[in-house]
Design brief:
The chain is globular. The protein has helices at 3-15, 18-37, 42-51, 60-69, 76-80, 85-96, 103-110, 121-132, 142-151, 153-170, 177-186. It has one domain (3-188): Orthogonal Bundle (Hypothetical protein af1432). Helix 2 packs across helix 8 (121-132). By secondary structure, the protein is an all-alpha fold. Bound molecules: 2'-deoxyguanosine-5'-diphosphate (DGI) and fe (iii) ion (FE) (2 copies). One fe (iii) ion binds at residues 53, 56, 86, 112-113.
């Protein structure tokens, strides 16, 4: 691990509770492994993995206050579902508090929950690693999705979106418009 990632890891440990930190390390190492598989830069993906949930342990009130302070625009679903905010807010924190300049890393944090149409490889890897890392063990079909992640990342993304929309349709949580657009782009038909 390079010194930059060592420093980010230290800082992230202080921002997160232990469970979230263990998940974060799982995402970072899984993303680095996927980077090796797809000939991306593993250090770069490790950074994105470390940062993806950096805003997760901020309270809902504080998240809304920070979005207002940083002038981050919220859609109607985000106004009602504060847990979705950690992605957008995390991207801001990654850029401004951690000094990340790599737009791909910032977008990977920003879209890790909803995905977006036309994701880059870096974004697809974080989206997928978040779903399959070792501490995740509730989603159905994980064995298949984990294999797919290392054989065809686009098929993995497609399958995760189908399963996520299916899961959301069975609950009462509102679906973010970006999640729907991502589903239409990667999984419809
Ligand atoms: O922060 P994590 O828990 O590591 O993971 P995450 O940021 O991907 O959040 C995962 C949850 O987000 C999962 O339960 C599915 C849910 N989710 C994804 N898209 C949407 C969504 N929830 C709502 N309400 N609306 C969405 O569009
Ligand atoms: Fe998250
Ligand atoms: Fe996560």
């Amino acid at each position: 691990m390079n010194s930059n990632n060592k420093a980010i890891k230290k800082k992230i440990k202080k921002l997160l509770d232990n469970e979230r930190y263990q998940h974060t390390l799982g995402v970072a190492y899984t993303a680095a492994a996927l980077a090796m598989r797809y000939r991306e830069d593993p250090e770069r993906l490790f950074t994105a993995g470390l940062l993806h949930d950096c805003a997760k342990n901020i309270s809902n009130d504080e998240k809304y206050a920070l979005c207002k302070k940083y002038k981050i625009a919220l859609n109607e679903v985000e106004k009602k579902a504060p847990y979705l905010l950690h992605a957008k807010l995390g991207a801001y924190i990654a850029e401004h508090d951690f000094g990340i300049k790599d737009k791909d890393i910032i977008n990977a944090v920003r879209y890790h929950t909803t995905g977006r149409p036309g994701m880059s490889l870096v974004e697809k890897i974080i989206f997928t690693a978040d779903y399959i890392e070792l501490n995740r063990n509730e989603a159905p079909g994980l064995t298949d999705i984990r294999e797919l992640a290392f054989t065809d990342i686009d098929l993995a993304v497609r399958r995760i979106l189908i399963d996520t929309l299916d899961y959301l349709s069975k609950g009462s949580r509102p679906v973010d418009p970006t999640t729907k657009e991502t589903y239409d782009y990667y999984a419809k038909s």
